[in-house]
Amino acid sequence: MRTRSTWLACGVLGVALIGLFVASLCAGRVWTPWSVWVSNGADPRWAIVFGLRLPRTILALLVGGALGLSGAALQGYTRNPLADPGAMGVSSAAAMGAVLTLYLGTAAQASWILPAAAMVGAGLGVAALLALAGVTSSIVTFILAGFVIQTVCTAGISLALNLAPNPWAVDEIVSWVMGSLADRSVEEVCIAAPGIVAGCLVMLTQGRALDALTLGEQGARSLGVSLTRTRLLLAVGVALAVGSSVAVTGVIGFVGLIVPHLLRPWVGSRPGAVLLPSLLGGAALTLGADILVRLTPAAEEVKLGVATAALGGPFFLWMLVAMRRRLA
Description:
By secondary structure, the protein is an all-alpha fold. 77% of the residues lie in helices and 0% in strands. The protein contains 14 helices and no strands. The protein has helices spanning 2-26, 34-37, 46-78, 90-104, 113-133, 139-162, 167-178, 186-204, 207-213, 217-222, 227-249, 255-267, 271-295, 304-327. Helix 3 (46-78) runs antiparallel to helix 13 (271-295) and helix 4 (90-104) packs across helix 5. The longest helix is centred in the N-terminal third of the chain and has 33 residues, at 46-78. The two termini are 32 Å apart.
């Protein structure tokens, strides 16, 4: 029954993604109907569709899927409903790597330097996480290690802002930390896609281990699950997917927190059943939010990270109130 619900949810989300994909190519400051798509370059708006909006749409699907799946995997592993990619410190570590290139002024020397620094930051974040948590540590230690990394990296970003050499550097750092898909091209898609796809595939293979962990660590071991191997694979998968995402878009928060909670009533609480729907749901939420920020009447486009934070803040408050009511 639950398996049927999972595939039904995936089907509904797949149809929604197709509709959002079409809407994303049409919507914006300049409306581009179907006739523009098939004009083969005769209409000047054809370049807007295939030069600007198509790479942006693909990137929104990739990044949103990576964040949604990472949140579901981390919540399943830690059995913590508040876990998301930021809780491991990977997003903050990747952002720290990117911010350093902006602070030092090296990002302007070549287009690949900033994404590469973000990926290196994500890798170092995972290495620090494993080193602090230890190979055989408990889940609680794992969460605390992620919190420490997140705090240190956030402090580093704040220090870079405080000591920025000029106002332009401050503006670039703030824009990057807010997260955005504006003005992204095929080059960014090519940079991010391999890491995101590889990371998502690794996480999708861990459904059985996450299901076994619902019985507790001892119960999972009795079923033959290696917690060390599961932790390493999840860390690598999240680092690849989230690090590649932050490398080209900046920090986009709350997608990994919101999506699994919205989908759990559909597919049940089994962690393995939430993974694939969360991937599709994260892609749909991010793409929908990106369409909305393009349609806002403000003179300057609202940053995507700001829009997701505006959704995530009230959602986080609702979760807190609901948990208090259950405990009362």
